TrEMBL record:
Pfam families: GcpE (PF04551), GcpE_C (PF26540). Pathway: Isoprenoid biosynthesis; isopentenyl diphosphate biosynthesis via DXP pathway; isopentenyl diphosphate from 1-deoxy-D-xylulose 5-phosphate: step 5/6. Its EC number is 1.17.7.3. [4Fe-4S] cluster binds at residues 275, 278, 310, 317. Residues 16-256 form the IspG TIM-barrel domain. GO terms for biological process: isopentenyl diphosphate biosynthetic process, methylerythritol 4-phosphate pathway; terpenoid biosynthetic process. HAMAP family: IspG (MF_00159). This is 4-hydroxy-3-methylbut-2-en-1-yl diphosphate synthase (flavodoxin). It comes from Streptomyces boncukensis. It comes from the Bacteria. The lineage of its organism: Bacteria, Bacillati, Actinomycetota, Actinomycetes, Kitasatosporales. Residues 271-356 form the IspG C-terminal domain. Binds 1 [4Fe-4S] cluster.
């Protein structure tokens, strides 16, 4: 049972330093992790934990929470204690929240020392506290918040400007002997973001967090993210990712997991092989594919299911999958492990596929 097609060629990963975000290793060839940020008010512990539970169920490995106020900082101990996955505190400007996050047991802190330096230069103390608590620091450089000095020097947020900014931010910690760093350089334009990360990968061996920032609404943003992250990950660059689309965190996580699975960097749980449809269709294939996906999401075993509109490619794809349906004349020919097991009316296709899936699961080794 489970995704029986030949394994894909997985990318050879760039060797970076390795650090640990809680119990999740990052870099050094360890599996690429998926992240998101909660959208709840961090001070509302229950709402935040509910969202963390949902993103964890969707495949999230590490979650980041924004800490813009004292109330948010005060909520961190309770959130960290009950979160099933490591929590990163995202902090701008106020060093006191960084210390609070470290004391709260946050697995990492995102902070830009350039900002800290500008307002209250306590970078050395932060380095000391993070080092003592074995808490890594993530430096995040975004096109939208690039240092004015570098913006003036480079004219705009070019790949060189983003990389120079990130390495300068790193140097502010390195001066204090702190190198437990992870870097993100993000841009809303996928190819600028790709160029920046290629450059960064050449110039340092810190683990890299990848993301196309402010990528847009779900459809556009997921495609932009898939293109940029797909290019970099296929070149072995990237140790952790986030899909930053204007959609709920669960959707961001699902998109991130799909990107990794498409590259063979994460096992797929459910793969629907469905045809786009053409003039040969005699069933509503778009609706059927959606219904199959909805019916099998959360199925406890990995499955590849073919949902095909006619006999041109239907039987071939159905035979290659764990389960398949090849449609025609308002009926579906059902396949299980490469064999035709039934022909049923369109209205019974989902039920029959579920029945066959349970049968396959019962026959799976270990059951
Ligand atoms: Fe068209 Fe049949 Fe191919 Fe679907 S499987 S796209 S219906 S030819």
């Amino acid at each position: 049972l489970g995704l029986s097609a030949p394994p894909v060629q997985t990318p050879v990963r760039r060797r970076t330093r390795q650090l640990r975000v809680g119990d999740v290793p990052v870099g050094g060839g360890t599996p690429v992790s998926v992240q998101t940020m909660t959208t709840t008010n961090t001070a509302d512990v229950d709402a935040t934990l509910q969202q963390i539970a949902a993103v964890t169920a969707a495949g999230c490995d590490i979650v980041r929470v924004a800490v813009p106020s004292a109330d948010d900082a005060a909520a961190l101990p309770a959130t960290v204690a009950r979160s099933p996955i490591p929590v990163i505190a995202d902090i701008h400007f106020q060093p006191r929240y960084v210390f609070a996050a470290i004391d709260a047991g946050c697995a990492a802190v995102r902070v830009n020392p350039g900002n800290i330096k500008k307002f209250d230069d306590r970078v050395g103390e932060i380095a000391q506290a993070a080092s003592a608590a074995h808490v890594p620091i993530r430096i995040g450089v975004n096109a939208g918040s690039l240092d004015a000095r570098l913006l003036a020097k480079h004219g705009s947020a070019t790949p060189e400007a983003l990389v120079e900014s990130a390495l300068w931010e790193c140097s502010l910690f390195e001066e204090h002997g702190f190198t437990d760093l992870k870097i993100a350089v993000k841009h809303h334009d996928p190819m600028t973001m790709v160029a920046a990360n290629r450059l960064l990968a050449e110039r340092c061996d810190y683990p890299l967090h990848l993301g196309v920032t402010e990528a847009g609404p779900a459809f556009q943003g997921s495609i932009k993210s898939a293109v940029a992250l797909g290019i970099l990950l296929s070149e072995g660059i990237g140790d952790t990712i986030r899909v930053s689309v204007s959609a709920p965190p669960v959707e961001q996580v699902k998109a991130g997991c799909h990107i990794l699975a498409s590259l063979g960097l994460r096992p797929r749980k459910l793969e629907i092989v469905s045809c786009p449809g053409c003039g040969r269709l005699q069933v509503d294939i778009h609706r059927l594919a959606d219904r199959v996906e909805a019916a099998f999401t959360g199925f406890p075993h990995p499955l590849r299911i073919a949902v095909m509109g006619c006999v041109v490619n239907g039987p071939g794809e159905s035979r290659e999958a764990d389960l398949g349906v090849s449609c025609g004349n308002g009926k579906g020919q059902i396949f299980a492990r490469g064999q035709v097991v039934a022909t049923v009316p369109e209205s019974q296709i989902i039920d029959r596929l579920l029945e066959e899936a349970l049968r396959l699961a019962d026959d799976a080794p270990g059951n």
